[in-house]
Amino acid sequence: MALFGRRKKQQEDVVEVAETPTLPPPPPTDAGGLRSMEDHRAYLLEQIEQLPAFGQQILDAIDLSICEDIESDIDLPGFDNSAMDGYAVHAADTVGAEEGQPVVLAVVGEVAAGGWSEEPLPPGTAIKIMTGAPIPEGADSVVPYEVTDRGSDDVAIRVPARTGQHIRRRGEDVTEGDLMMRTGERLGARTIGLLAAIGVDKVMVRPRPRVVVLATGSELVEPGRPLENPAQLYDSNSYLLAGAARADGAQVFRVGLVGDDAEAIKQSISDQLVRADLIITTGGVSQGDYDLVKAVMPELGMTDFCQVAMQPGKPQGFGLIGEDRVPMIMLPGNPVSAYVSYEAFVRPVIRKLMGIEPLFRPQVRAIATHLIRSAPGRKQFARGVVTTDPGGRRRVTAVGGHGSHLVSNLAKANALIVMDPDVDQVAAGSPVTVWLLDENG
Amino acid sequence: MALFGRRKKQQEDVVEVAETPTLPPPPPTDAGGLRSMEDHRAYLLEQIEQLPAFGQQILDAIDLSICEDIESDIDLPGFDNSAMDGYAVHAADTVGAEEGQPVVLAVVGEVAAGGWSEEPLPPGTAIKIMTGAPIPEGADSVVPYEVTDRGSDDVAIRVPARTGQHIRRRGEDVTEGDLMMRTGERLGARTIGLLAAIGVDKVMVRPRPRVVVLATGSELVEPGRPLENPAQLYDSNSYLLAGAARADGAQVFRVGLVGDDAEAIKQSISDQLVRADLIITTGGVSQGDYDLVKAVMPELGMTDFCQVAMQPGKPQGFGLIGEDRVPMIMLPGNPVSAYVSYEAFVRPVIRKLMGIEPLFRPQVRAIATHLIRSAPGRKQFARGVVTTDPGGRRRVTAVGGHGSHLVSNLAKANALIVMDPDVDQVAAGSPVTVWLLDENG
């Protein structure tokens, strides 16, 4: 300190102090030192950049977000073509045709789908034509098989043709220059079909983020192995979160468990940085003496540990780790806390990485089927089952207690019931906000 | 032939004539020779067997249908444990504690999550305990850090403890023998978490069917390549259907295009039989002279070509092909016909192979925003956009014309408007049935 003080004094106007990179200033807290859920979510999101776009084969780009506006280079159909199997004719040649007194025309050839001829159809003749085949120059209507004798050399036509009948016009579906997809839209089967139809085989999309999931805790055991003492329990968090991230479109690497050992935690995280666009951990971020994630991660990058005004999910950690500043979200270790935190923070981050809007779950109102109590002061997330009646009205029933260790009811839920910090109860029959967990916006 | 005839004669009463296998008798047709959409769908489905179940790692089984009832072998929690960081005590020892006059207990040790001791907690003492750590025998409540001085040798407790406070009881979430999942349920992130929590790492599921998609037609060109003459067009069907099958959970192999050549079609199908649980083709099933799929497939297996009372999608083909009787669905070649046929027939077949219920798209009613005309006599499928207002009321607007070649409007649609054969129009403001294309039941 003394030395530093001297040097600083001597070189005051020439030295540039190397700035240690730091996270942006965190959001404000309430009187109790808690950050709001919305503030924390916004704080994380502002530090996440969309992944760079790359070219992908259209079929492999399904569900991904497109990073370019796509205009059609061609007309669809590309040429006037037949909507029926039949005969292309000059409509004028069929005037007066009727049952018992058909018009007979010479059949001068046949045009299949994909066939093409520069030669115009002479007046007074017909040419056999298949569905999708180009209308020869001069012909102005198609007479379907059904009203002919299906002749080969000559054809007898029993009904006069209307000009233009059964012809699909060039460009009636898509015109060259039409905008087919906009930046930010996601590819689905039907848009992939449309892109193929205009001849596009590759598109620029944001890739699936590589998400590493890691659970910490010496008490955890891999499912499928025996519990060695009665105080051990199976790791469910890393499976729960890996499954959720996969359902949200990520490419997930579930890493084995790490015990409560500072060096092992640091090593495991360091090993994963090279392949991660996002790291998610659970456990070790609370106030306990064994909450080592919180203790060691500041050595590996810029971190932010805080308490969020939500229940469950109060202790939260975030960091930009290593040289590449890989985003890392450190969630609490109780399964329900971890899952609610995933929904509140991780899913929006994954969607931002992928360039998918909206970032958040569909948030709707449902009628509470019974009294739902809430603990005021923190935003409450309760597990719920939403049903929709045939008229489209949604009702919600809370399932399970408030314990953040209760996984069986989490599996039954299809929604989170969300109650603001100033709410202490929702009466039966009153509307309450829910996040729909099985609907992807 | 002569030899065979002789032998047959000699052994007339012992020979068993080998029965040529045939498909079951097809459903009846209407006066116009058309089969109803529902009858044809049922006819296909009765000939499809679910794929055999196999053991899969739980995380890789996401979205798949489970083929066993799963009961828990353990209690959850597996032991009484602490819901807080604090001290495990005998509640009786804290009677009378208050601010300014705390009860002081000797701290006899510390128990971390995963820690375990057979030794009971002596009366008059406390033991430091972390969230999730087992409650020592004898202790009956947990005093959180917040109401103590966080002492190490002795702890001063300022509030009396209630018996049982902050203890999560063994089995309060799941009891050994509880049914966790039933046959037929699908795995999602939250159920995967639950299975992991009870120690299950593998489950029996029906696999993703291997679906081969192949488009026929000499006029077709691969997207990304130049059109060589003005009558060619890009193959969009195989991309559309491959994308749809992938979205529906299949493992899709999109095979290159096959021209209108009988031998090439037979060869391509034969080559795919070995890796296919289902083959889908488009094109070549109508009445045209180049509809070769219909012409050649009876040589490779048992087939059924028919006309269905629906529009689009009238010509349909089905077969059980090769020695293994691989199901094959032969769809018409117009993109919209192919897609509507996929929704009506292929998707339910894929879901039956996977053991997923319900087989059909969610079918709901929506209010038509305008007059929608229908051609009576066949079930009509129109492309529609369904919107849901905040109150949950659905409205539907038809997009695009009736032409089955119009792919741009298909990409905009999120629903099929379904009108029965006896309907000729739906008035603005009236309800109409829709299939929701972006919701997976």
Automatic annotation (TrEMBL), chains A, B:
Domain of life per record: Bacteria
Gene3D superfamilies membership: MoaB/Mog-like domain, MoeA, C-terminal, domain IV, Molybdopterin biosynthesis moea protein, domain 2, Molybdopterin biosynthesis moea protein, domain 3
GO cellular component: cytosol
Xref: SMART domains: MoCF_biosynth
Cofactor: Mg(2+)
InterPro entries: MoaB/Mog-like_dom_sf, MoaB/Mog_dom, MoeA-like, MoeA_C_domain_IV, MoeA_C_domain_IV_sf, MoeA_linker/N, MoeA_linker/N_sf
One BP term from GO: Mo-molybdopterin cofactor biosynthetic process
UniProt entry keywords in alphabetical sequence: Magnesium, Metal-binding, Molybdenum, Molybdenum cofactor biosynthesis, Transferase
Keyword Transferase among UniProt keywords: yes
Reaction(s) the record says it catalyses: adenylyl-molybdopterin + molybdate = Mo-molybdopterin + AMP + H(+)
Domain MoaB/Mog: 212-352
Keyword Transferase attributed: yes
Single GO term (MF): metal ion binding
Pathway involvement of the protein, from the record: Cofactor biosynthesis; molybdopterin biosynthesis
Coiled-coil region: none
Enzyme's top EC category: transferase
Enzyme Commission designation: 2.10.1.1
Region called Disordered, residue ranges: 1-32
Function: Catalyzes the insertion of molybdate into adenylated molybdopterin with the concomitant release of AMP.
Family matches, as NCBIfam families: Glp_gephyrin, molyb_syn
Homology family: Belongs to the MoeA family.
Protein name: Molybdopterin molybdenumtransferase
UniProt lineage: Bacteria, Bacillati, Actinomycetota, Actinomycetes, Propionibacteriales
